[in-house]
Amino acid sequence: MSSILLTKLLLGPGLVVGASLAGRRWGSAVSGILVAIPIVLGPILLIIAIEQGERFGAEAATSSLLAMVALAVYVVVFERAGRTLRWEVTTLLGWAAFLAVALAVSQLDVAPVPALIAACAAFALALRVTPPPSTPAGPRTPPPAWDLPARAVATAVLIVAVTGAADGLGPALAGALSPFPVATTVVAAFVLAQDGPVAATGMLRGFLRAIFGTVAFCFLVAVLLEPLGIAAAFAIGLAGTLAVQVVVLLSQRE
Questions:
Q1: Of 151, 102, 95, 139, nearest to 122 (Cα)?
Q2: CB count in 10 Å sphere of residue 144
Q3: Tens place of pLDDT for every residue, the chain, 254 residues?
Q4: Phi-psi category of 229—alpha, beta or left, where left has phi over 0 and alpha has psi -120 to 50?
Q5: Which of 2, 35, 133, 195 is most buried (most C-beta within 10 Å)?
Q6: Sequence-separated (6 or more) residues with CB below 8 Å from residue 71
Q7: For residue 6, what is the enclosing H or E element?
Q8: What is the C-alpha separation between 249 and 254, in angstroms, rounded?
Q9: Cα dihedral 146, 147, 149, 150 sign
Q10: Residues 6+ apart with CB under 8 A from 72
Q11: pTM, full prediction
Q12: Alpha helix locations (H) across 53-181?
């Protein structure tokens, strides 16, 4: 258990740092694509399945899949608020929107397929109402020396807070909290604060395009966990995620 938790705490901040560096090299949209990888959600669901059993884990994965609707709402609220508000207020509004929707959908009892349809529809709609910026992003602000360490620490703190809140909850509520936008918040908030709303919109659009890989991950884990077991279900789920990410990255280069 401790080794899994340690791995999660290292991988989450590592992803954020890597996504931040990639964004400096190839643009904020690439950062959005990379933070869509389920590097936080995946370990949370894995710990749930190991500790609580495969049936509990499958139910939590289904709840996480349905809670993707809340994540789509978070992105839309963050992007719209970030056009005129400071990053602190924008972040709080985005979190409030996520929690409100996630707590609401956690009360619903749905099968994986309807949850998959709801998640895909929500992200497709979010992408549609988040058009590309009409003006190019301005020059990037040179980041201070403490930038990357601050992003890593902020990610670790959020991971601890989210996993701590999920302890002791049932599968529906634990699963609904699992997609909490940890890495997304850190990267989006820093991009908004340092480079402005146009760059933040580009980052969030990249995230929306790539998040379908995480949707596939949750669906595959939900339907395969009981019949195939933990190792096979998570391996196939990760393979599905990576396949979607490759397609998105290739299309991003066109």
A1: 102
A2: 9
A3: 456 566 656 666 777 677 667 666 666 566 666 667 787 788 778 877 887 788 988 998 999 999 999 999 999 999 999 999 999 999 999 999 999 999 999 888 899 999 999 999 999 999 999 888 766 555 555 656 656 676 677 767 766 666 666 666 777 787 888 888 877 887 888 889 888 898 889 889 888 888 898 999 999 999 999 999 999 999 999 899 888 877 776 775 54
A4: left
A5: 35
A6: 98, 179, 181, 184, 211
A7: helix 2-26
A8: 9
A9: positive
A10: 119, 122, 123, 125, 126, 208
A11: 0.82
A12: 54-82, 87-105, 112-128, 147-166, 171-177
Residue 104 amino acid letter? A
- The pair of three-digit structure tokens given for residue 28, joined into one six-digit string: 């904020």
The CB density around residue 85, as the number of other CB atoms within 10 Å, is 16
First CA to last CA distance, the chain? 43
Tokens 């495969």: give the residue. Answer: 54
